[in-house]
Amino acid sequence: xxxxxxxxxxxxxxxxxxxxxxxxxxxxxxxxxxxxxxxxxxxxxxxxxxxxxxxxxxxxxxxxxxxxxxxxxxxxxxxxxxxxxxxxxxxxxxxxxxxxxxxxxxxxxxxxxxxxxxxxxxxxxxxxx
Length: 129
Known about the structure:
The chain has helices at residues 2-10, 13-25, 31-44, 46-55, 61-82, 86-105, 107-128.
């Protein structure tokens, strides 16, 4: 609900999620309450691509709409698979807590994680495909 609406309004899941960070860090918002907002933000961010795809015309309009719908279905599917089941819902939160604790203890680990996740893994996939 809230995450979807907020993200549709600002057209950025990053803004919605970034607003949660200081609230959670200050103890104003529990992680368990921030998590559904984050999931909603991921669904809400698909609206921008859908609007752009629906405005497209011509030969490639179908391809654009297909990609936008894949984006929507991927995010909705993830929410349907994870959120209704409490044990599944706890997994991302536990992993995030573990990673946050590890990053607080070792900034080098946090840097390695970011470099690995956002640079090395994409390059590896690009090379393999």
